[in-house]
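Example record for the data management plan.
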Amino acid sequence: MANPDFAGREYPATAPYSVGREKLREFASAVGAAHPAHHDLVAARGLGYPDLVAPPTFAVVVAQRAEAQYVQDPDAGIDFSRVVHADEKFTHHRPIVAGDELVTVLHVDSVTERAGIAMVTTRCEIFAAGSDVADLADDAREHVATVSSSLVIRGEGS
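Corresponding structural encoding:
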């Protein structure tokens, strides 16, 4: 079962994720996001964006990289084969665009066990790194998005 002592844990910022145009186009096509701002640079710039803009759910790509720190931590007690994704919520502070260098800080907000299952809530705070991506001080980062996830981890008999 999930280790309840992980509630309140914060993981260090991930290595920067470079948002590329082709990744945005591929993701947009995969999720059926046909708006030209996701595919055409001229269209995106015509709408005031500096580059291609990501569909809102693209933030999950970045968040899952950070969540892997927790899921793969042997002391966390997570058996990923028993995980069911229960809920996900995106809060955007500004659009993700091609050219962004994104770092993510993972928070394990809660770990609760009931009736043989564990409920885990995580929160990924996604920031655009400043011009020096090695400088991860709060004042060098622009808050881009928050991704909150709820996971259910089925017990042995479930």
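Summary line stored alongside the record: The helical segments are 21-31, 41-46, 59-71.
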